[in-house]
Amino acid sequence: MKISTKWLKDYVDIDIEPQVLAEKIERTAVEVDEVYRLEKGLKKIVVGETLKVEKHPNSDHLHVCQVNVGGDELLQIVCGAPNIAAHKKVIVALPNSRIADNVKIKRGKMRGEVSEGMICALQEIGFAENVVPKKFVDGIYFLPEDAEPGMPVYPYLGMDENIIDLDVTPNRADMLSMRGTAYEIAAIYNKKVTLPHLEIKENQNDNVANFLEIEAEPELASTYLMRIIKNVTVKESPIWLQKRLWNAGIRPLNNVVDVTNYILMDYGQPLHSFDYEKISGKKIIVRLAQNDEVLTTIDEQERKLDAHDIVIADEDGPIALAGTMGGQSTSVDEKTTTIALEAAVFNSSLVRKTARRHNLHSEASMRFERGINRKTVVEALNAAAQLIADLGNGEVVSEIAKGALEDAAPVEVSISLDKINNVLGTSLKVADIENIFVRLGFGVNIANTMFTVSVPPRRWDISIPADLIEEVARIYGYDKLPATLPKGELTPGHYNHSQNIIRATRQLLEAAGLTQAISYGLTTSEKAGRFLMQPSESTQLKFPMSSDRTTARMNLISGLLDDIAYNVARKVDNVALYEQGRVFYREVGNDRPVEVEHVAGALTGLFKTATWHEAKVPVDFFLTKGIVEHMLRSLGVTGRVKYVQADGHEEMHPGRTADIYVGAEFLGFVGEIHPNICKEYHISRTYVFELDLGKIMGLVKNHANYTPVSKYPAVTRDVAMAVDKSIKNSDIVACIKENGGKNLTKVELFDVYEGEHIATDLKSLAYKLTYQNKKATLLDEDVTRDFDKVVDELKEKFAAKIR
């Protein structure tokens, strides 16, 4: 909201430096983005009058102008503007002047003709293009006829006004108007607000009932009013109105539209003007749109409506999107003579959804979404109608057409003096609090130390005692509040079980050589449905930021593959990443998903590059599986961890993927990405794992305890056997541990062989068994007895041929 201090001074008698005022507003009410003055940095820019305009002899688009700038002699200026004409008041940058962007204008020649300065467009002296009147966008601006040649142009264009650009927060929508801001400034500086009220002059010979009939459902529009202004001449607005608008960041269009925008800035009340003659049936209905209805809005876009859009309709269908944008079919143009002027309070929730759905966020929709002063709707409508009549030589038809009218009453809130002081830590007196409420323009009744405050409708953000405490703190001054340390019993902080597991998981994976990645929790529907560890419905966003962020993720791997693809595209081929985060599963029939903690990793390329004394280590299945084993073992997961060959994951390589179990509990999977997925992401062979960290947290843990190093020697035995190729290493290891006796401490596979000197359907496996007793020296016969038992069991269970 751009606030002109000159306009503000019409309502509040203040004479304060703009920077000081802005700093006070920022400390008390809302943030200030910028304080500026358009004339700042400009130099020697004056009013000129073009007395003679001739074509340039050496150019088909330039003109040579003789310009009166108030001196004894005329200046000759070469101008290329297509709309340059004689006997016009124009903006002239004199020789050695400064225009926008600190550009210096010098005397010179253009195509052989002397040019003593420059005739300027508004953009060239600092105006934003979106506020320049359309007829002057591609040319120079013509000043009013009463502009005096030689005088500085700044007062004629409002460039001598200080502008404070407020960043208004949603809870202070009352400051999205000049009058609302005036009340705030008056409260801050304990000043009186003086607001003008334009008196309505109605034509009693005609009645609005002869023109319109209105129907409005209160749940769609708690207030819906219309006035008729007839015999209007649509034309350019006077310069005072144009100055007010472009200083507020709005482009002037014509006297009708400009008045509605002026009232929007002044009262904060959105209005819309219809060409009455273009309304079919002369009956206006405020209703919900029907599915597949179509409306062409004034931006010439055809919009397909749905049943959640509020529309203004005549007998032929929608003519406007309520609170958002008008329709092209009833827009005001230069031929319009009768105006139907609308003022309303629409359902804020539905307006917000419509603005988002159609991407039509405007000054009007923003105010309807955040709230408007319901007490001044009628006053704003009357002021706009009378101003349109005054500027367009029209007449206001008597009476207001009412579809709905809400009775806006003050809200009463009670609070005690002790409550205010206890919360703020102050020692304010009853008189101090009363003075603050009076400065804010609130009614107040006091009984002992209890305040009953009557809050006017213009401050609809205040409804509970906490709101009153905030108002007292603001006006009293946040910088005056005492600073105190919190009191309470100090207790040592600590992580709970889940937090410990999460942090330990991250530390283990980082120690293993992986780098943490953080991916978006939202992705595409296709990516969200991949790598699922359990059946789940997808969770779709109703209003996604983009087509790439429509669905809550149900896996972490998709995000990691995006990260790997990003790195590979930038020539980083060796990548090892992990992510710990939540996925979102949803059962059929449930509206909300369940959040589950997961951990996942993705590795591609080389895990370790070659050096002068070490060979390179490429990423493969066993390296990735080893990282998972190390993590589970270090987290203290008890029970037998099993890796079972899996072929149920469509996105994984069918022969190089294993499901991970602890007992019967499925924890996740590890393996190679399917080549088709790698091709989609434009990455090379990649290995991944994903585990349900929530299930890991629920398993019984073996906490690591220190065990002294045994002082007794260990004894080893090797066994090599030929077994069928279908037999798994994990089954053999389990058999050895089950029958190896109490002194067996370690089983290691150190050789695998297939080829010559062994049958084609067999493979050779060699294991080292380590025995150790921590309390005594082992006897050779004891070790031999336990080892023989293992050998016999391997022969019987697996038909192993001992080599």
Descriptive report:
- With 803 residues, the chain is of the alpha+beta class.
- The protein is built from 20 helices and 42 strands.
- The strands form 11 sheets. It has a 7-stranded mixed sheet with strand order 28-31-32-38-37-36-35, sandwiched between helices. Strands 3, 4, 5, 6, 7 and 10 form a 6-stranded antiparallel sheet that branches. Strands 12, 14, 15, 22, 23 and 24 form a 6-stranded mixed sheet that branches.
- The mean pLDDT is 93.
Estimate what percentage of residues fall within beta strands: 25-35%
At the first level of CATH, the class of the largest domain is Alpha Beta
Q: How many helices?
A: 20
Number of domains: 6
- In CATH terms, the superfamily of the largest domain is Phenylalanyl-trna Synthetase, Chain B, domain 3
CATH A-level architecture of the largest domain: 3-Layer(bba) Sandwich
Mass-distribution shape: elongated
What profile does the largest beta sheet have? 7 strands, mixed
Structural class: alpha+beta
Number of strands: 42
Quote the average pLDDT.
93
List the uncertain runs. none
CATH topology assignment of the largest domain: Phenylalanyl-tRNA Synthetase, Chain B, domain 3
Helix content: 25-40%
